[in-house]
Amino acid sequence: MMEYKNKYDLNVKIARIFNTYGPLMNKDDGRVVSNFIHQCIRNEPITIYGDGEQTRSVCYIDDLLNGLVKLMNNNVTNGPINIGNPHELTIKELANEIKKLTNSSSTI
Length: 108
Fold this sequence. Notes:
- The chain is an alpha/beta fold.
- 38% of the residues lie in helices and 13% in strands.
- Helix 2 packs parallel to helix 4 (91-101).
- The protein contains 4 helices and 6 strands, in the order H-E-E-H-E-E-H-E-E-H.
C-alpha cells in the first residue's frame, strides 16, 4: 500500500488491528479470547501454549470500529496506525480474568 501511495500520490490509510473481541464472536475462530471463553463456559481445561508469559493487547469491537472511523476521517495520517489497547496482559492473566468473569471451574 505504501508503494502504491508513493507511486500515485494517493491518500492511503493502514490500520494494524490487534486481538479484537466482542459479541457474536465465532467460538471456533481459533483466537485466544474466544478459545478461553469457550473453554471456560464448558468448564474445560484452558489451553495455554508455552509458559503463558507472552503478552497480548486486546481491543473491544466498539473501540476498534471507533478507531477505524477516526482513521478514515483523519487527513493527516502518515504510516500504519495501531488500533488496540496500550495495556498488555500475559496469556496467564487473560486466562485467569476470563475464568473469573465466567465463574468457571476450568483449570489452566
